[in-house]
């Protein structure tokens, strides 16, 4: 060997050894981290003891729900689950408020069956079945200035009814009943908003006990086609960011991500995700304007922006900053029985693995975690939020004293009601 070759080996030998050592340590760290995450998830599945009946007092619960074309899930799951829930809580501790809005399936028939079952149990309730369809709503041309709210001129060259103010109006209908009952001296501790989801009494009790029962809002995690979670429109992490991805581990914010990994209540800025519990006090406030659902102003929506009424409610809630909004990963609901079953494994298995396809394994979880990590490292929400901020700023400059507290809820969309649902325009 030539002298120059020996000098090169001496020069690069330590560097190569350091690189090899670094690679080995990286692999060891990677394996330990993967094992740690797997154990956290497995332990949560194995040792998460259900709340036993008689050992938890959730207070008096006002249950509010909206339904539209939900006959199948009502008859297959929802009615039974609600009857079991109110039977456990006791008829004197609940009020059931249901609004059905112009369905074309037999949702009305299914809810009449529910009404009869609740009557046998002597459960106080208000079940309203409306014949007003989406087509009726969008055909009702506004005739006065105060009726113009929610109607905007869209790029399609039409005057159309916005989806979000419409939904906010329906949700607020249930709150008027809550307010009427309070005036009669009938008060409740918590309002439970229930979507058309598969759930159990244990799910509800666990949700109500989130963070020891101290919260401005506590939400479940919802699924329609696991492993993707469903409600992307309303969920924002602890920093107000949209989740990075629809599959686990979802979040950009490390605070939200860390709580998810340990299966603890996850601090978020906003959530809805199928089932939500909130104290009734902000909705019945005597000192401030009572909390209500809303859409963003029509003038702001004209800048091609939209925000969910289920996100804006948290932006407006004075308790959000003092009591916190939490997503409880131990409460997982589904928009169909298959989705619910997928995220509730029967055998000792972490629920993340069970929500992937049967051929998936721990390796799939590793891929998902690293996908999240790389997205956090190499993507910046500032660029997409800059577009939103610019449009909001332009709106603010159009007229003095304009402010939208729910800017973190906004996305680059315009949504209107149509006869068979809703549409982007």
Explain what you see.
The protein is globular, with a radius of gyration of 25 Å. The N and C termini lie far apart (74 Å). Strand 7 and strand 8 form a beta hairpin. It has a single domain, classed as Spore Coat Polysaccharide Biosynthesis Protein SpsA, Chain A. It contains 14 helices and 14 strands. With 425 residues, the chain is an alpha/beta fold.
Radius of gyration: 25 Å
Order of helices and strands: HEHEHEHEEHEHEEEHEEHHHEHHHHEE
Biggest sheet record? 10 strands, mixed
Percent strand: 15-25%
Structural class: alpha/beta
State the domain count. 1
CATH topology, by name, is Spore Coat Polysaccharide Biosynthesis Protein SpsA, Chain A
How many helix segments? Answer: 14
For CATH, the homologous superfamily is named as Spore Coat Polysaccharide Biosynthesis Protein SpsA, Chain A
CATH architecture: Alpha-Beta Complex
The CATH class label is Alpha Beta
Oligomer category: single chain
**Whole-number average pLDDT?**
89
């Amino acid at each position: 060997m030539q002298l120059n070759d020996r000098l090169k080996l001496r020069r690069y030998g330590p560097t190569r050894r350091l690189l090899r050592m670094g690679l080995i340590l990286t692999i060891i760290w990677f394996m330990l981290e993967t094992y740690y995450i797997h154990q956290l998830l497995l332990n949560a599945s194995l040792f998460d003891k259900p709340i036993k009946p008689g050992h938890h007092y959730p207070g008096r619960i006002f249950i509010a729900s909206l339904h539209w074309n939900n006959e199948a899930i009502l008859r297959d799951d929802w009615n039974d689950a609600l009857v079991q829930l109110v039977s456990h809580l006791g008829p004197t501790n609940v009020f059931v408020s249901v609004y059905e809005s112009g369905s074309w399936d037999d949702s009305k028939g299914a809810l009449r069956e529910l009404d009869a079952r609740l009557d046998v149990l002597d459960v106080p309730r208000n079940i309203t079945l409306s014949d007003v369809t989406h087509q009726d709503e969008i055909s009702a041309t506004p005739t006065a200035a105060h009726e113009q709210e929610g109607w905007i001129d869209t790029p399609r060259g039409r005057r159309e009814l916005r989806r979000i103010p419409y939904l906010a109006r329906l949700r607020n209908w249930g709150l008027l009943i809550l307010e009427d009952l309070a005036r009669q001296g009938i008060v409740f501790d918590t309002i439970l908003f229930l979507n058309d989801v598969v759930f159990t009494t244990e799910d509800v009790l666990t949700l109500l006990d989130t963070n020891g029962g101290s919260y401005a809002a506590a939400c479940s995690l919802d699924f329609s086609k696991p492993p993707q979670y469903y409600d992307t429109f309303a969920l924002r992490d602890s920093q107000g960011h949209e989740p990075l991805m629809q599959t686990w581990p979802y979040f950009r914010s490390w605070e939200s991500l860390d709580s998810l990994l340990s299966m603890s209540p996850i601090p978020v800025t906003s959530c809805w995700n199928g089932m939500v519990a909130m104290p009734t006090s902000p909705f019945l406030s005597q000192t401030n304007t009572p909390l209500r659902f809303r859409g963003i102003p029509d003038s702001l929506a004209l800048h091609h922006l939209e925000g969910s009424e289920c996100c804006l409610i948290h932006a407006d809630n004075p308790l959000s900053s003092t009591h916190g909004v939490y997503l409880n990963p131990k409460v997982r609901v589904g928009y169909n029985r298959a989705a619910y079953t997928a995220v509730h494994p029967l055998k000792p298995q972490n629920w993340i693995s069970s929500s992937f396809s049967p051929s998936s394994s721990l390796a799939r979880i590793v891929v998902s975690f690293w996908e999240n990590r790389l997205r956090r490292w190499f993507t910046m929400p500032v660029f997409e939020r800059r577009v939103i901020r610019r449009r909001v700023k332009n709106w603010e400059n159009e007229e003095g004293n304009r402010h939208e507290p729910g800017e973190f809820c906004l996305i680059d969309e315009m949504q209107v009601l149509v006869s068979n649902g809703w549409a982007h325009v």
